Amino acid sequence: MWAEFEWENKVAVNTVIQDEKGFLDHIIKSTNMNCLTAPSALEDECGFLAANLYAKSVFGEDALVNLSIEKQSDGKLSGYIRIRSKTQGIALSLGDKITLKQKGGN
Fold first, then answer.
1. Strands across the sheet with 34-35, in order?
2. Which residues form the Coatomer beta subunit appendage platform domain (predicted)?
3. Residues with Cβ within 8 Å of residue 106, at least 6 apart in sequence
4. How far is CA 84 from CA 46, 47, 57, 78, in A?
5. N or C: which terminus of the chain has fewer CB atoms within 10 Å of its end residue's CB?
6. C-alpha Rg value of the chain to the nearest Å
7. pLDDT band at 81 (very low <50, low <70, confident <90, very high)
8. Residue 96, helix vs strand vs coil
């Protein structure tokens, strides 16, 4: 299914949040996406987190998101959020929304 979504927007992680699961929860809450990754796969603290998310826009467009983050030695999170969709518009607009929301604000 990932390959069917030809438009990709790659957003660098830039946040003050220092907890991997907390950052994932913040992205889910601020974008209204559903997490496809099993909760049991997200339980352990290992300094790295990868999760797949899904959303459907009000216009019926699907978007898949892969979040991949790593905790650095200074405690900051780094990584990327890859957004895939069938249309350029949703990939770009969701990327813009994530860029605005990911820092830890409302």
1. 7-12, 77-85, 62-71, 48-56, 34-35
2. 1-98
3. 30
4. 27, 25, 13, 20
5. C
6. 13
7. very high
8. helix
Tokens standing for 37?
Answer: 């990754």
Distance CA 19, CA 76 (A): 9
DSSP reduced 3-state for 15: coil
Burial 51-65 (b: 16+ CB within 10 A, else e): bbbebeeeeebbbbb
Residue 104 is given by DSSP the state: S
Using the predicted structure, report yes or no on whether residue 91 has a pLDDT greater than 90: yes
pLDDT on residue 27: 94
Tens digit of each residue's pLDDT (9 = 90 or more) over 13-48: 999 999 999 999 999 999 889 999 998 888 777 889
The rounded percent of the chain whose pLDDT value lies above 90 is 69
104 exposed, middle or buried (CB, 10 Å; 0-12, 13-18, 19+)?
A: middle
Residue 20: both structure tokens together: 């991997």
Per-residue pLDDT for 53 more than 90? yes
For residue 101 the two structure tokens come to: 């929301």
